[in-house]
Amino acid sequence: xxxxxxLVAARLCGRRRPALAYNQLALAGLAPAPDxxxxxxxxxxxxxxxxxxxxxxxxxxxxxxxxxxSAGIFLVHPFVVLGTRVVVSRMGVTDLTAQFV
Length: 101
Known about the structure:
This protein folds into two domains: 2-55, no CATH class; 59-100. The protein is 69% helix and 0% strand. It is flat and about 60 Å long. The chain is built from six helices and no strands. Helix 1 (5-13) crosses helix 2 (18-27).
């Protein structure tokens, strides 16, 4: 399919949603996958969802619980990782893969 995939997508969905159809073709392996970080459709669909959750006041209790600790975890984790690497290195483990695991 390759280069004509956007045209096929446009024919499948008419003029209203060709970008969504193209994404579906890419997920099915029938079209080249766009880069997820720069895909305009991904950004268009990805941004409104969390904002709508906030706007509608929808709460997810487990996420609220983790959110209370996230700043502390983010600020402290480099020191824990560094200390663990020092201890593991002194134990004689020099393989970086083993240190990361």
